[in-house]
Amino acid sequence: MRKIQFFDTTLRDGEQTPGVNFNTKEKVQIALQLEKWGIDVIEAGFPIASPGDFEAVQTIAQQVKKMTVTGLARCQKKDIDRAYEALKEAVDPQIHVFLATSDVHMQYKLKMTREEVLASIKEHVRYAHSLFEKVQFSPEDASRTEKGFLLEAVQTAIDAGATIINIPDTVGYSNPTEYGAIFKSLIENIHSEKEITFSSHCHDDLGMATANALAAIENGANRVEGAINGIGERAGNTALEEVALALAIRKDFYQCETNIVLNETKRTSELVAHLSGIPVPKNKAVVGDNAYAHESGIHQDGVLKNPETYEIITPTMVGVTQNSLPLGKLSGRHAFNAKLEELGYQLTDLDSKEAFKRFKRLADKKKQITDKDLIALLADQSREETEAFKLADVQVQYSSNGYQGAIVSIINEKNETKVASRIGSGSIQAIYNAIDELFQQTIELTEYEIQALTGGEDAQAEVRVTIRDEKTKQEFRGIGVDFDVLQASAKAYVKASNRFKTTS
Ligand code: KIV
Ligand code: ZN
C-alpha cells in the first residue's frame, strides 16, 4: 500500500487565522501532540517573519525527535539563512521555499516576468539545497498558474535540487477534477533522477479543501498538507483529521496507509481549539461534538440494534473519551496524575503541582470534573504562565437600576499589583473598562461569546473574546474558563489584552 505523509501547518498557515497568535510554549505543546498524533512533517513557522516565529521554530526543532521540522522561506537569501539558523539543530530538517507563479501574482504582487521568476527559483532553490538536504518548493497560486509555465517552474525547482514539490491551491479556487489533473500531468511530465514527492496544499474558500486533497492523493500525491480543525488563512486549510479519517475509513477505495494514530485525533483537535481560541463547530466532520450524536428516533433505534447502521466512525476510534472516570473533590494526587496521563499530558513536577491546586479549587465548586474541564484548566494554566499581566481579583457592584461598578486588580510584569475601578452599563462592560485602564489601551471588543463548557447546572462558563486594534486592524483572541461567568469574562479579556500588548 502507498504511504501518505502528513504535513501539518497549524503553527504557520493555521496561525495566519485572524486573531490567532500562539506563544512559543503553546507551539511546543501543539508540536508534541502532533508528534503523538503521527504527523510526519511539521511546519513550525516562518522564521524570518518575527523574532517570536524564529524562537518557536528553533525550540521545536530542538525538542521534536520523530517528525521532520520545516520552516517557510521566500525566494530570498536572508529568509533561507534565517530558516537554516532556526532549523540546524533539528534531527531531520527541511526547508520550504515558495514563489508565486500565476500571472496575476507575478504581474501585480511580484512585478516580475516569467523569466525572472524562473531565474529566482533556480538561484534560491539551489542556495537552499546547499544548506539543506531536503528542499520543498511551492509555486504559490499553482492552481491558477498557466499549465505549461507551472511545469517549467516545477522542473526548474527539481533541477535546482528540490525533491518535494507542493502544489498550493492558494485561494481555494480549484475543484477535485481540476486539482487532481494538475498532479497527474506534472507527475507524468517531470524528469528527475531522484524520487520526487508531490504534496497537496489546499484552502477551503469553496468548501472543497478536503475533497481536493483527496483528489491529489488519488492522482499520485504522497504528501498532504493541512491544519488541525482546518484553521488558517481566510476559510482555512484542509482539515488534516478529515483526510486521516477518509483514508482510514475508505481504505478499500484509496488503498493508502498513514502514520496517524487515530485515537489521538480528538485530543489533538481539542488542544488546538483551546489554544487558538477557535471553537470546533458542533457539526464539524470527525471532531465536532455532534459527529457521534444520533437524534432522530429511527437513527437511535438503528444504532441500538447495530451501530453500523448509522455510524461509519466510532467515537473510540478517534479518541472521544467516554469520561469513564470523572474526578471529584475526593480524588487524590494519584488519580489526578493518572487522569492527566490518560489524557496524554506530560507535565513537569512543578506544573502538575500547580494544576492539582487549580483542580482542587475547582472541585470545591463543581461535583464532577470532566475531561473537558481538565483540558480547559491546563490550557488556562499554560497561557497564564506566559502572560505578562495576570488577573488577580475582580469585584463587581451590581445595581438593577443604573450603572454597574467594577474593581479589577492585576499583577504586572514587575510583580506590582495595580488596581482600577470603572463603571459601565453592564457588569462585563464595567470590568472591561477597568481592564482597559490597567492596560492603558484603546481597543474595540468585536466578539464576545459565552457557552457552557459541559452539560449540567454546575458547568463552567467558557468565554471567548476578540479585540481589535483600530490602528493596525489586527485582532487578538482570548478564552477564559471559570465557574463564574464574570471571572471567565475577565480572564478572556485579560488574555486577549496580553496578546495585544506583546504584539504592539
Ligand atoms: O497557500 C499557499 O500558497 C501557501 C504557500 C506559502 C505554500 O501557504
Ligand atoms: Zn496556504
UniProtKB/TrEMBL annotation:
Species annotation: Enterococcus dongliensis
A Pfam cross-reference name: HMGL-like
Keywords: Acyltransferase, Amino-acid biosynthesis, Branched-chain amino acid biosynthesis, Cytoplasm, Leucine biosynthesis, Manganese, Metal-binding, Transferase
Binding-site residues, Mn(2+): D13, H201, H203, N237
Residues covered by the Pyruvate carboxyltransferase domain: 4-266
Pathway(s) served: Amino-acid biosynthesis; L-leucine biosynthesis; L-leucine from 3-methyl-2-oxobutanoate: step 1/4
Cellular component GO terms held in the UniProt record: cytoplasm
Lineage, uppermost ranks: Bacteria, Bacillati, Bacillota, Bacilli, Lactobacillales
Cofactor: Mn(2+)
Protein name (record): 2-isopropylmalate synthase
GO BP field: L-leucine biosynthetic process
UniProt subunit comment: Homodimer.
Gene: leuA
Task performed by this protein: Catalyzes the condensation of the acetyl group of acetyl-CoA with 3-methyl-2-oxobutanoate (2-ketoisovalerate) to form 3-carboxy-3-hydroxy-4-methylpentanoate (2-isopropylmalate).
GO molecular function: 2-isopropylmalate synthase activity; acetyl-CoA C-acetyltransferase activity; manganese ion binding
